């Protein structure tokens, strides 16, 4: 397979969740164009001779923990198929990712994403195989598959040709440190709310100025922390 294709492997107990997700929208488009290749790996295929991938935690406590050995074997299988990769364990304990992380990854790395389940994974797997732990937010999910889908979608949008228009991602939220400006479409009037005159003027320079001003205004009102970050 060409080294120009972005490669993302997802190791999961429920690979069908990933397979269903990647068969719609821009992800399907990117795969059909051979711009991105996304593969799910069923962790259960690397289970022990009894078919188990999890066990009770040492020291006691609720729930089950995914064993190190099946994760190690599945990850090393994925690594054998890739070059220039990062192995990422998706975890609420990881660093919270942002658009800067997404862009850097899209530009420079293939990915192996580990979707955890249950109470977590054996720490020895993390110590041996994981390059970074990522979080998509300060909350807990039932499994890492949803987080994996978020990461896949965000990265795919950064790959040239995946979106319908080459400039589709240039003015999106977070792209320049600000949130995106408001959008309007037909009709011009909806329940006494009219499209701003400048957008109907045909004056592209004034429209550009308006959008930049609105972007700053929206960011200041909704995410003032981004303004402070940009000024720091």
Overview of the molecule:
With 232 residues, the protein is of the alpha/beta class. It has two domains: 6-156, SPOUT methyltransferase, trefoil knot domain (Alpha/beta knot, 3-Layer(aba) Sandwich), CATH 3.40.1280.10; 171-232, Trp Operon Repressor, Chain A. The chain contains nine helices and nine strands. The chain has helices spanning 15-21, 25-32, 68-79, 99-108, 123-129, 145-156, 197-200, 204-222, 224-231, and strands spanning 6-12, 36-42, 54-55, 65-66, 85-96, 110-115, 132-135, 189-190, 193-194. Strands 2-1-6-5-7 form a five-stranded parallel sheet, with helices on both faces. The chain has a two-stranded antiparallel sheet with strand order 3-4. A hairpin with a 2-residue loop joins strand 8 (189-190) and strand 9 (193-194). The longest helix is centred in the C-terminal third of the chain and has 19 residues, at 204-222. The radius of gyration is 21 Å and the shape is elongated. The mean pLDDT is 93.
Q: What is the secondary structure topology, with strand pairs?
A:
Layout: E1 6-12, H1 15-21, H2 25-32, E2 36-42, E3 54-55, E4 65-66, H3 68-79, E5 85-96, H4 99-108, E6 110-115, H5 123-129, E7 132-135, H6 145-156, E8 189-190, E9 193-194, H7 197-200, H8 204-222, H9 224-231
Parallel strand pairs: 1-2, 1-6, 5-6, 5-7
Antiparallel strand pairs: 3-4, 8-9
Helix pairs in contact: 1-6, 3-5, 4-6, 8-9
């Amino acid at each position: 397979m060409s080294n120009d294709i972005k490669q993302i492997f997802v190791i999961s107990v429920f690979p069908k969740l990933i397979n269903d997700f990647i068969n719609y929208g821009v992800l399907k488009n990117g795969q059909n164009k051979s711009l991105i290749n996304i593969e799910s790996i069923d962790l259960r295929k690397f289970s022990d001779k009894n078919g188990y991938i999890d066990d009770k935690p040492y020291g006691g406590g609720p729930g089950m923990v995914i064993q190190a050995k099946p994760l190690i074997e599945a990850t090393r299988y994925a690594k054998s198929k890739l070059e220039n990769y990062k192995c990422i364990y998706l975890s609420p304990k990881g660093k919270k990712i942002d658009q800067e992380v997404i862009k850097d990854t899209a530009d420079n790395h293939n990915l192996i994403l580990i979707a955890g389940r249950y109470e977590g994974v054996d720490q020895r797997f993390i110590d041996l195989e994981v390059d970074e732990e990522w979080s998509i937010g300060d909350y807990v999910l039932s499994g890492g598959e949803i987080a994996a889908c978020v990461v896949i979608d965000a990265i795919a949008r950064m790959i040239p040709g995946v979106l319908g228009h080459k400039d589709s991602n240039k003015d999106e939220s977070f792209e320049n440190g600000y949130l995106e400006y408001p959008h309007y479409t037909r009709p011009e009037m909806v329940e006494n709310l009219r499209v701003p005159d400048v957008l109907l003027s045909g004056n592209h320079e004034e429209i550009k100025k308006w959008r930049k001003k609105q972007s700053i205004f929206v960011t200041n009102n909704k995410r003032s922390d981004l303004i402070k970050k940009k000024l720091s």
